Amino acid sequence: MSIEKYNIFIVNYYRMYDKVKQMTDTKKKIYLDHAATTPVRSEILDVMMEHFINNFGNPSSIYSRGVEAKRNLENYRKDIASSINALPEEIFFVSGGTEADNWAIKGSAKANIKKGRHLITSAIEHHAVLNSFKSLEKEGWEVTYLGVDNYGLVDPDDVRKAIRDDTVLVSVMMANNEIGTIQPVAEIASVCKTAKVIFHTDAVQALGALHIDVKESGADMMSFSGHKIYAPKGIGFLYVRKGVKIASILDGGGQEKKKRPGTENLPYIAALAKAVVIAQNECCEMSDRLTSMRNDLFNKVLSRIPHSRINGSREKRLPGNANFSFEFIEGESLLLLLDSMGYECSSGSACTSGSLDPSHVLLAIGLPHEIAHGSLRVTFGKDSDPDDIDGLVDVLEVIVKRLRDMSPLYEDFLNGKLSEPHCMLTGDSSYCKSNEGCIRV
What we know:
The protein is an alpha/beta fold. It has helices at 3-23, 42-53, 64-84, 97-111, 127-138, 156-162, 185-195, 214-217, 255-258, 266-304, 331-340, 360-364, 369-372, 388-405, 408-414, 429-434, and strands at 30-31, 91-94, 118-122, 142-146, 167-171, 198-202, 221-225, 236-240, 308-310, 321-326, 343-344, 375-379. It is built from 16 helices and twelve strands. Strands 2-8-7-6-5-3-4 form a seven-stranded mixed beta sheet, with helices on both faces. Helix 2 runs antiparallel to helix 10 (266-304), helix 3 runs parallel beside helix 10 (266-304) and helix 10 (266-304) packs across helix 14 (388-405). It is globular.
């Protein structure tokens, strides 16, 4: 970049900053990253404090305080089981979604090794799932990674075709954490049941957004995490259908039916049980409200910001999830500027936000690297205010325009050195015009 262009860049940056700053109250932080984590609800914190201060016994102790702790532990297990239509003995407490995924995948694979060493998953799974499979690959397991369509959907027929006589496990997430796509879990589970293959689904993002019924899902194992549903970080549970063989991957004591050793974290388990019951009771009402907000954001962004697209399906999508790509800009700059103006969003999974690589999910649905880099994820929660959407779009419109003004690629496009923008997925401009929400040209 020449000195002249650099100076223009700096001037434009500060002009943008001043203009956007005039539009926002920087003292007010608007949290729009509920897929990353959620604050602990006050009524859930109250339950935790009772066990921190008064009912603090170890459930493995045989004196009265320990017996009471054990009784509380099993009551919380029953509360969760009843809420998701499971049996209490099918609920195992763990430290969170990552441990649940690791245990489900590695534990079931190793417990059923006599059948074979072939595993199946999708290309858009959370890294807790993908890296568990990669770990097993290093131990000699063979893994098939299924592709997805342009909306991030796994085809159940692709699962059926991938299953072999030596297939032990299929793992496909219930809903994607980045683009919000809801998978046909019940159909995939049916395929696996017919083939007598264990089916696991990561339901971390689904709980609280969708009503969970483990029997209706057909899944043999499901992973859940507390901090996505207003419970604290560091607690979750794994549902394991009765009769499914799963080995322990930790060594220690005999807790959790000798499957998951370690003293049970009763304050956090109490919080988790409360959060699950609330999430299941409130999800339908919450879903309607967040879907309305999400669609309002979709419509306003697409109508006001050119060369933008929605990533994922508009219909088969989590209620509070919106994910966009903006051509000719870089996502990190967009996030930092939004943050400076009081809007806390993300570009994808919080677990990989420090990476400079583009999202593996966006690449899997067909976006080229340069466009995948220009992504924005907005996820609403129970306290999100519909009135904040207009302010977000106002700020977003200005930031995107200014970042494009600084972009050499956008300058080349304006000067005719790049072809007219086309569908980011198919290369066919007619596709863009006939598919609402694909891209604004």
